């Protein structure tokens, strides 16, 4: 299934006259003039960046071959790797004796149309398992010799979730099939997640970000 529904502002050119763009109407007003009689005014903005998609999936498993947390520079908000036995931020060049750590769980999620990798972010994992990366690292039973995949995370597998992902430029323009979750509703939260007020909130939030043409697994609910 293709989601090539809208053109982007970036793609506009003189090759044709008709384009399909998404806009948000911020204000619509009616007026009247002596010459033209009734008229209607619109104040609209073009929506043109990325979009959010909500999907109901089963977490088959977390990919345990990749590390479940990352070291990062809090100032630049980018991950940093150990190079020459030191952690140095590639952007601000700061060297960290002990860098900040956050979850970076890669889940392999399936619905009846296929499987996609979805990365779970720190905030959502903490909320779901009730532990920070530091809590787990400090717990010998969780990590044993350091290589064991933590039980607290393992318990999040094999369950169905409502996951809201961000579809980015990389996904649409560069063909990346790896998505990042912004919101993950656990099985026990999924009823509450469908309440009218929650839905309204997520729609408003989703409308504030924008849209790219894309191809991605079907059966995902798009908010416009
Ligand atoms: Zn930095």
TrEMBL record:
Record-linked Pfam families: Rep_fac-A_C
Replication factor A C-terminal domain ranges (all copies): 53-185
InterPro entries named among the record's database cross-references: NA-bd_OB-fold, Rep_factor-A_C
Protein's UniProt name: Replication factor A C-terminal domain-containing protein
Species of the source: Heracleum sosnowskyi
Taxonomic lineage of the native organism: Eukaryota, Viridiplantae, Streptophyta, Embryophyta, Tracheophyta
